[in-house]
Specification:
With 89 residues, this protein is an all-alpha fold. It is built from 4 helices and no strands. The termini are far apart. The model has no long low-confidence stretch (mean pLDDT 92).
Length: 89
């Protein structure tokens, strides 16, 4: 049996869009309780490609961002918006 999907533990560098995309794809996938294999199936992409996206290893095309966003049920632009950092002030 596979391990339970884990949400990202760190916020991405807001200036690195590959890291931001990886953060959101993984977070949204985990929120749905999906494995990388399930996301790959839902987005018609290869599982190893989804894994590489979540590890910031690929420059992702707009077409593939659209596929991922549609599968995750989010607007594409949300996958590129840096998450808000919580301040202690």
């Amino acid at each position: 049996m596979s391990a339970k999907p884990q949400a990202p533990t760190q916020l991405p560098d807001p200036d690195n869009l590959r890291d931001v995309l990886a953060y959101w794809v993984r977070l949204k996938r985990v929120e749905k309780g999906w494995s990388q294999e399930r996301l790959a199936m839902e987005s018609d992409l290869d599982r190893t490609y989804v894994s590489a996206v979540e590890r910031s290893r690929w420059n992702v095309s707009l077409s593939n961002m659209e596929r991922l966003a549609q599968a995750l049920d989010v607007d594409v632009w949300r996958l590129l918006r840096p998450p808000c950092r919580q301040s202690n002030e």
